[in-house]
Structure formats: structure tokens, C-alpha cells
Specification:
Blueprint lengths: L6 E8 L8 H11 L3 E11 L5 E4 L8 H7 L6 H11 L14 H9 L6 E9 L3 H9 L12 H4 L3 H9 L9
Helix pairs in contact: 2-3
Length: 175
């Protein structure tokens, strides 16, 4: 069995005035071509003014099935159900939830869309971090938490981050 690198679900919200000219998909393709990520699945949902949730097709048949199954929008293929279990299982293989999104969290996100808005769900594998994750696991470690920090969360340490970004030694620089 091939070991996956860290798998992440990222959800983006789009307001009623959003334009879907393909720029996001182009950037994903660029990141995938560079070997930084592998897109496992993408699903775009829009809530109509009537309150119905509809999926937006954009790529190829089968795209969005895994995420749709996670969101409770369809049964999805049997293979996708098995993949979901392994992706959502704990790092130690016990199946215990360690951190991250649950299927209920995902369903709540899709249900909370306001009429006229849309959401993009992106399931991706971080190929750049695959060896790092393997090293952590091989030395007895396991992921405990992850997440993107918002601009508001970074504001109190923004000056320090700018100083680190300006250093020539990188994050391990002892200065």
C-alpha cells in the first residue's frame, strides 16, 4: 500500500459576486505540476436563492464524489467510502479521531451556506511533506493538530514574522 503524505481539506467561501473564471483551478494545476500537492478531490457547491444546494461541475466525471459522500450529498462509489475511512482514521490506525474535520463538520459547512453564495471543498495531499510525515511516524511521533492561521491570529506577531522572513538563515537561524 502506498503511504499518503499529509491530507488536508481546505474549504473556501465565495460571495454572490464571485467570478469563476478558472483562476483557482489554474493555480491548483500549477501546484500539482510542480510536485508540491496532489489534488485528491474538488467539489464546488452553490446555494441557490431558493435555498437548494447544487454542485457545480467543472472537470470530469467522478470529480467531487469523495467529497460529496463526506458531505452526505450522495453515496459515492464504494472505493471512495473505503478511502474516506483510511484518510479520516487516526494516525495510529485505531480509527480514533485525533483532530480535523469530521463528516458532520463538513455537512454543517455546506448547510450553512447563505443563499447566493458558494463554497469550494479541496481535498489535497501535501507531497512536499510526505517524507517529513514518514520521519515523524518512524520515530514514534504522530500529528496532533494542524491548521492555517488567519491574518487576525498572526497580527500580534506580524513584526516578528517579518523579521524571520527577512533573515537569510531561515527558520533554524539562531539569531
Amino acid at each position: 500500500m502506498t503511504t499518503l503524505g499529509p491530507v488536508q481539506l481546505v474549504t473556501f467561501g465565495f460571495g454572490p459576486d464571485a467570478t469563476f473564471e478558472g483562476r483557482v483551478l489554474e493555480e491548483l494545476a500549477t501546484l500539482e505540476r510542480s510536485g508540491q500537492i496532489r489534488v485528491l478531490d474538488v467539489l464546488f457547491l452553490r446555494k441557490t436563492t431558493d435555498g437548494d444546494v447544487e454542485t457545480l461541475d467543472y472537470r470530469s466525471e467522478g470529480t467531487g464524489e469523495t467529497l460529496a459522500a463526506l458531505l452526505g450529498l450522495g453515496p459515492g462509489p464504494a472505493e471512495a467510502a473505503g478511502a474516506q475511512e483510511s484518510v479520516l482514521a487516526g494516525a495510529d490506525g485505531s480509527g480514533a479521531r485525533q483532530f480535523g474535520f469530521t463528516p458532520d463538520d463538513l455537512k454543517t459547512l455546506s448547510e450553512e451556506l447563505l443563499p447566493g453564495t458558494a463554497a469550494g471543498f479541496l481535498l489535497l495531499e501535501h507531497l512536499w511533506a510526505k517524507k517529513l510525515l514518514e520521519a515523524v511516524r518512524e520515530t514514534g511521533g504522530r500529528p496532533l493538530a494542524e491548521g492555517f492561521l488567519t491574518a487576525e491570529a498572526l497580527a500580534p506577531v506580524e513584526a516578528e514574522l517579518r523579521a524571520v522572513m527577512g533573515s537569510t538563515g531561515g527558520p533554524a537561524d539562531p539569531r
